[in-house]
Every structure is written in structure tokens, then in C-alpha cells.
Fold this sequence. Notes:
The complex is a heterodimer.
Chain A: H1 9-20, H2 39-42, H3 66-77, H4 88-100, H5 106-118, H6 120-133, H7 136-148, H8 166-178, H9 183-192, H10 201-210, H11 212-215, H12 228-244, H13 263-274, E1 276-277, E2 293-294, H14 298-331, H15 341-360, E3 367-368, E4 372-373, E5 379-382, E6 392-396, H16 418-426, H17 433-446, H18 467-479, H19 484-492, H20 505-510, E7 523-524, H21 527-537, H22 587-591, H23 610-618, H24 620-632, H25 640-652, H26 658-675, H27 679-695, H28 697-700, E8 701-702
Antiparallel strand pairs in A: 1-4, 2-3, 5-6, 7-8
Chain B: H1 2-7, H2 16-24, E1 41-47, H3 61-65, E2 76-77, E3 84-87, E4 92-95, H4 99-103, E5 108-115, H5 121-130, H6 140-148, E6 158-161, E7 185-187, H7 204-222, H8 229-252, H9 259-265, H10 275-287, E8 292-297, H11 315-335, E9 342-348, E10 351-352, E11 355-356, E12 366-367, E13 371-376, E14 384-386, E15 388-389, E16 396-398, E17 401-402, H12 403-413, E18 422-425, E19 428-431
Amino acid sequence: MPPKKQLPQSTIDNFSQWIRNGADWIERPQDAADYVITDEQRQFWSFQPLAHPEPPRVRGLKDANPVDRFVVARLKEQGLVQGRQADPRTLIRRTTYDLVGLPPSPEEVAEFLAQWSRDPDAAMAGLVDRLLDSPHYGERWGRHWLDLARYADTAGDASDFPIPEAYKYRNYVIDSFNKDKPYDQFIREQLAGDLLPSDNDNQRWEQTIGTGFIAISRRIGVSPQNLGHITIEDTIDNIGKTFLGLTVSCARCHDHKFDPIPTSDYYALYGILDSSIYPHVGAEHQPWRSEFVYRIGRKESDELLKPYREELQVWNDRERAKLEEYRDFQRKKITDPNKTREKAWQEVLAMREERRPHAEAFPDLEIAYAIQEGAPHDVSIQLGGSADKKAQGATVRRGFLQILGGEKLPDDAVGSGRRELADWVANPGNPLTARVMVNRIWHYHFGRGLVATTSDFGARGTPPTHPLLLDYLASYFIEQGWSIKQMHRLVMLSRTYQLSSRDIPASSELDPTNQFLWRANRLRLDAEQVRDSILAFGGQLDLTPGGRHPFGHRLTYFYRQHEPFVGDYPTRRRSIYMMQQRIKKNDQLDLFDGSDGNVPLSERKSTTTTLQALFLMNSEFAHQQAVGIARRMADLPADVATRVNWSYQLIFGRPPSQQEIDRAAVYLEEVRTLQGQDADGQEEAWAGYLRGMISSNEFLFVD
Amino acid sequence: MIRSLAGAGLVLPGLLSEMLAADRKDPLAPRQPHFPARAKRVIFLFMTGGVSHIDTFDPKPYLDQHHDQPYNKNNYFKGASWKYRRYGESGIEVSDLFPHIGSVIDEICMIRSMKNINGDHFGATIGIHTGSATFNRPSFGSWVSYGLGTENRNLPSFMVISPGLPYGGGQNWGADFLPVLHQGTQIIPGPEPIANMHRRTRTSRLQRTELDMLEFFNRQHLKGREVDSNLSARIRSFETAAGMQLAAPEAFDLSGETDETHKLYGLEPGDTSSFAWQCLVARRLAERDVRFIELVDGDTSLDKNWDAHANLTKYDHLARNVDQPIAALIKDLKARGMLEDTLVVFTTEFGRGPYVQSPGTNGRGHWSRVYSSWLAGAGIKGGMVYGSSDERGDDVAENVVGVHDFQATILHQLGLDHERLTYRHAGRDYRLTDVHGRVIKEILA
Lengths: 703, 445
């Protein structure tokens, strides 16, 4: 639109200067034809095909684990020496927390020590196998994946509707890790599980649930149903970062500033997702759920549900009509003295109650929060990322990133293109997919990836510290059928994984952050490990898998920005099964840097805060659980040495020294003096002692 | 802070050098601003729901004259529901909703040309708090904490006194990609304003005994691990927590405040439910050098916030709840010489519209195109009006102040250049003001 007044002279001068400079329109959206990837960009390390490097020859390591040969060779180049192997107690604690997120029991420690004394290598291999077979493995490693998938049980917009079916995706992820689903298959299911072949209906349904990865995309604003382009942005952002280690969504408004990703690539992916149907979970102005996926099929469910839907529609209309009467007070002066705004609101609420039994009588078919095929179409570039109809650029054929091959959907393609997208991402020839995943596995084992920026393998990320090892691992991963469990075995049975965390002054002088892996990194327990462990010590942890959260009936939600959904469902199950809400975090998990649920989280932070200390000192949780652990002592002989020994074995995984027993005796004596002698005092004294243990660095850090 | 603790004998001997070493990489340690600062701290008063500019701080005689007359086919003008009068030497007009704020108008720079980036509560609320209406970003207060640290380790650097949750919930004070210790700590009026701030162990001597036991566990563990500063930092966090356990209840204990002060704020002794409580506590936190203090008025429920589509009448009691305490806060800070270096900010997510769909409607819709906010203290020119809306209060007439300009100006008073206050995340440097923001130099004294 032309401005009403003449522009200020300074603005006119700027335009004149710009025209004299050649009127370069730097921010123009570029479509595929005129975007040129430079040779320099093509030569960037992460876009190179996987090398298949042989492990280097290292003297004394002829038959060693390949990981060690790569790492030690690199250490030698740097003039560094690798430390010694950690002791077995450290190793079982490290390995158990790492694979299942729980502390080893004193019995497991004892058994491992016995095996270790016979054959350390066999003991370690047996330990890793036992833990990989545990159902709790998926609860630990699935959690990593849920962080990336920004999993949550609510939608994320202003009214934050619950998604009662979301848990199926959560459990699907846990199960997939437990059964060591090949990672390429896991990818395909999450992008296009509904379109994959299947042997039976269970498999078909499981794969369908996998597309929850897309469905769970964050909703935003008051009317997310009108912000489809922002929901798709969230999906593309997540696909880019999580699978490919690329910040693809930067190209929504302009060509990527650093990586060779033009806007046309972004809209090539956008068309695929825009040709798919996302379920609507309900939001303030559109509270009715729609487009969920029924197990019996779309046509079948439509037929079966038709009468019920029609009946419910009547009630929905009545409810909306009442709401409109209420909203009239915003629009006009109501003169009828019998009508008040408050009364109108009460009538809305009464109508909802009247509607409720009809909603609750709706048939309970099996539903998934998943993705379906829509009408296939290509889309235009949205200039500046704007969904405004006036800001449409060139139309882009659906396809993949140019730097990764740039395949386009063939002319005769029939679907959205998700099926093809899944294959492009999971293709062994894709230089990023395997590299990114093995690097994630490495990151979770060591606390830092070979590429430290685990979701950014682009120009702004950090280059790998061990490029050959990274490629070796990626090739091995593919050769082993994309088996994540095989990667654990390879990595965890290396000496590098089993190193002591002790400092070596000469090495820390040269490599203070241990990027060349001369020692193990000491890691703080994460939020779930802290909570789950403390519950486990008190015998309070419920180890059964969690299911649906106790949300109200799915068809009775009328949350709005003024009354958003807020839920709290206490549970003694593992933290992964706690309800995770988007607009409100769980205070306890958040305090210890827990997951986010709004954005893909690739690296947990590990902060130390005063509020964490206050939590351990003063929270009801810490006090109750410490009392719970103290009560478990009741059956033990009352002598200090026995009880201290029991506590140390349970919480620190080792026996106490005589000095430590003596110190406990001193403490107990001091408390007795302060409180006077009685039985409750005993329990209180021990609870205080145990609270010290669960607040201590020996518990909170893993060597 | 560590030295002073050591001086007071609160730090266990032998830990001092480790703790000082940890202090060097302490992300909350006070930092030098980019240039000399006028403000040492901010008190950010946020009114949830969208305060009508037309009925409060931006008189529109045109609307009053055309009240109930058609504007176009679908809309009618709606004049202010409260009268305006002039206050102070500056003679700035304020409506009868805010007589007390009127009484301190000469301390205030009134901005009548605010513009938010989004017209919904959710987007506009997170917009003014984080600079983005769509994506998760760190909060204003988190950026300030990150940029300047804090001089009082016995209290969090960023505290949000908010009885409920505004639109967007805790995202408004989340640290997002900044380290979580810059996250706002929500203060909920009541017996335990900061979670877990009260000792649960029966006596302080008993707790000391327990903490000595913990200290023993940690000392044992530290043997051979001395070089790991994460371990000493955590040991230290318990000492800081012990300090907070003492400092926090004292900060919230108003029993030492005189009757006069209570009267000034309009606070009944023992009442913690009013905005007056929030304001008086804010002054006490400011005295204790908390860096960024936010006060949220209201939550998402309609009877407690300024969203008024059909019930403007509620503004009478909403304004009564905040007017006197806010004025009292300014007077009190001034009397204590603290208004010099405390920046008081009054804002909301947007204004409310000049039109209604039918004459006589007792409400207004959302209006982010133009609205009013104000600043006071810490080098801001008092008794001035900056910017204006057009005669209908429909859009900015001159000197637009977008949320990023507003943020840039507040950061500037804190000695922070909004273009240099950056954090590297996901491959690029992020700013509170994204790629926008202009410091409004015209309002600086």
C-alpha cells in the first residue's frame, strides 16, 4: 500500500543510495532454480559420504575394541595418556544409571563384584546384556527420545487441552527401544508409520501410533487451528534437528544464513506436511476434537459413529448457542433486565452439564493421536514466513533438502510424500542420519557428543573431535542393521567407556575439558534419576509401566485461555510416566533441569542452584522419602555399624569405612543430645542422616 | 558474599578456597554492565488482561464527544467510562481510576504509543516478556539476571510475585535456553512464598547437625576429586541455601514495617492477598538488591484481570486494588533515596479498542495497535508524555514504542546494550530484542 504522506527525505536518500548500489534484494526468496550451493558448502564435513575407516593400528591394542583404537590414536597425537579403568563398583553404578536410569541394588553390586573377580570382561559384557534386556532400559533411553520429540500430554496453546491418547506414543517409544527396533524403521514409523506395509493389524496400529512424533507438534496461540503454518514449522524444526542435525526451520522466512538450505527446501518439506492431516485436540474457540485416527479405519469409524456424532452435534450446537448468548454481552447492550452476564454464564455451564452424559455415552473406539493422509498438493513459498495470501512466492515441488540429494516427488506420486520423506531420511546414503544418531548415543553415554552440538551438524555447530571414530560408528551402526543396542555394546565394552573419572594433572593441563577422552566425565544425575532413585531407596517406586493419565472424559473439555487446563496427577511410577504439561512444568523435575516438552531438547543442562539445595533440605518429598528409607531399617539390628553399612550399600553402592561409621555414631549422639531419647527420635535421627546421603555429591554424581 | 559469610563464621573452615574458586565461574556473580548504569534493579508491574488505555492514561475527547455514534457500518465509538483530570506540575491527565498514580505523575514518563506484536493474550503476554509472540524464548528478567548477575546470593536474582499464572504461564519467567538459575522464582503469597524456604527440621541446631553430617559426606567424596569445581559449587549451594533460609523469611516478614508504611500502601496488617502486599514486598526485595522484581496483577480468570469485553465496571475494584500501592511504592522508594536507581515499569499486554459493535456495550475488545505504559525512576524523565495515539486512540500517531523498543530502553538504563546482550544457542546469537529495538533516548534524563 502506498504511504499517505511523502516519505521523509532521509528515507528517500536511503532508497536512492540502494538503487545506485545496484538495488540488490538480498532477502528475496529464492526458488530452487536460482539457489546455488557453492562447492565450499558442498565440501563441508557433515555432508560428505560416510567414510568407512579402519581402526588405526595402535601398539598394544591389536585386538582391542575399535573405539579404543580410535580414541587412543587420537590421544597419542595430542601427547595425552589415557587413564586407568574404573573400579568395578564405579562401573556397575555408572552402567546401571546409564542404561536403566536406576541405582544398582546392593545384591546386584555384590553379584557383579563376584563375577568381576573371575573375569572382568565377561562380567561387564554380562552386565550390559542384562541391563539391555531389562524393561527399564526403554524407560531410560525412550526418555532421551521423548526429550527430542518434545513429548507432552497437552497441546501447548493458551488453553493447553489435554491429549489423553498421547501416552500411546510415549509407550510406543519405550517399547521400540526395548525391542531394539532398527533405527531406520523407527524413523520411518514416526514420519509415515500409517503408510508402511505391515504383517498384521497390531503392527499396523503400532506403526500408526509412531506418527505421534508429528501429531505431538506444539500448538500455539489462542486458536492454533488457524496457525497451521506455525504447527508445521514446529514439525519441520523437529525433523531437521532431531533426525538430520540441521536447523532447517531457519529457512522458513529466508534462506538459511549459514547452511545451504534455501526457503524452497523448507517449502518442499512444508508441502508434504501440509498434505497430511494433523489431529485437532481442541482449543478455546474450537473445543471439538477432530481428525483423530481410529483403529478400525476412517470409513468404518465414520459409518459407525455417524449417529452418535449427529446426536452430539445437537448438543454441541446447543452449547455454542448458549455461549453466543453470553458473548452477546461483549457485542451489544442487553436491555432485557432478566438477563445478566453472570446468568448467561451459568446457563452455559448448565448446558455443558446437560450435554455431558451424551458426550460420555459416545462409543469408546480405539483412537490414536496420529497423522493421516490429506489431499496432496505442493505449496508456495510464504514470503518472510507469512501465511498471508498476499505473500505467496513461487510454488515448490514437494521434495527433500537439496544438499542431501534434493529428490523430488515423482510426477505420478499419489500421497502426501511422507512415505518418500521417511525413506530419504532413513536412507543409509544420507550422510547425516546415522552420524547424528550415533553421536546422540555417544552424548548420552559420555555427557558430550563427539560433535558437541548434537542437534546442529551445520556450519554453526562444532566440528567432531574424532571424525574418523564418528564415521566408523555410523558405518557400524548401519552394518549392524541400525541396532541401537549393538551400539551400546560396542561403546560400553570399550576401555574408553570404562575409564576412571580421576584427574590426571598432566592431561588436564593439556586438555582441561577432556575432549580427547583421557578420563571419564563425572555426570550429575538428571531430574528423573534423582526422583526415581530416592523413591527406589525408600521402597516406594512403582516399577509398573504407566498408561493413560486420569484426565476427564475426552469429549467434555471446555478449557479456554482464561481457564486453561491445569492438572497434577501424583504417581509413584517412574518419572517418565508423570503427566507432562506444556504451559506448566512439573516443579520438581524442572528444578533439576528436566525435559521441556515445548522445544526439542538435545542436551540436558546440569545446573547447581540454591533452590535445588533448599529442595533437598526442606521439601516434603525429601523429608518423607528419607523417613521412608529410615523405616526400612526397622528390621535391621539397631547397631550403628549395621545400619550405616546398609545405608551406604543402598545409596552409595559401597561399604562405609570405620571412620564413616564412627562419624555416624557421633552424629547420632549429637542428635540424641539435642532431642532427648525416644523411639521416634531414632527414626528422625536416621531420617536426617539419610537425607544427608541423598543430598550428597556421592549420590548426586556418577563417576 | 562468600567472604562475608566466612567473616561471619558461617562457612566451614577449609572450604573457603574451593568456594572462591567456584565463585569465579559462578554465573550469578555480579557482572559489570556494558556502560555505567542508571538503574541497579527493575520493578516490573504487569497488569494481566490488557488495560484499556482509553479509560486510564490516554484521554480521547473525540471519543467522548462521539460516544455511541456510528464509526462505520459495524462499529460505534465508545468514550471513556471515567473522567480525566490533570495532575502535578506537569498537568498530565490521568483518569479517575488512578488518582494515586496521578499524585506521583511528576515522577512518571507516560508512554501513549506502545505497540505489541500480537493481539491475543497469550502472544502479547509472552511478547512483552520474552520478545517473541510465537517461540519459546528466555524471559526479560532472565536476560537481566544473565547480563548482570546479582549482588545478593541469599535471594534469587529474578523474583516474580504472582499469586496465579498469567497467560502463557511460567513461560513468561522461564530461562528457556539460558541457564536455569536465571529463571524467575515464582513468589506465591502465603506461608511459604519461596518453595522450601522454611526449615522443616525441628530446630536450627538440629538442622546444623544434619548439615554438618552432609558436609562430612561431601568432604569424604571430595578426596581425590578436588579439582572438580562442580562438586565444590554444589557444596557451596547448601551454604547459600542456609543463607536464603534465613534471609527469605526476613524479607517477607512485614512485622517490622511501621503503621505509617502500612497506611501508605493501604495494607491491612497480616493481609497477603492484595496488590499492596506485593508492592511492599517488592520494596523490601529491592532493598535487598534483587535484580529483577516482577509483580503480576491478576491471572487468567476473568474476574481477576483487566480483560473487559463486557464488564468494564470491574475496573473500579481492579484499579482500587493497585492504584494506591503503586503510588505508595514510588513515594516510598523516593523517600528512601532508592528511586534514583530503581526503575519502576508499569505495563500490560495491550490496550482496549475504541469501538463497540453496538451502542451501550459495557466493554472493549483487545487492542495491540496502541496502548499506554509508563516508566519511573532511575534516569527516566518524570512528568513527561512520550508518543501519542491518534484522536480515536486507534493507532499510534507519533513516536511508536514497540515492545522491543521498550525492552531496549529498560536494558539501556541497566547499563546493557540490547544488541550486545547475546547468548549463543542452536548455532546463533540470540537477543531479547531479536533484530529489533531502539533505545528511546528522548525520555532519558
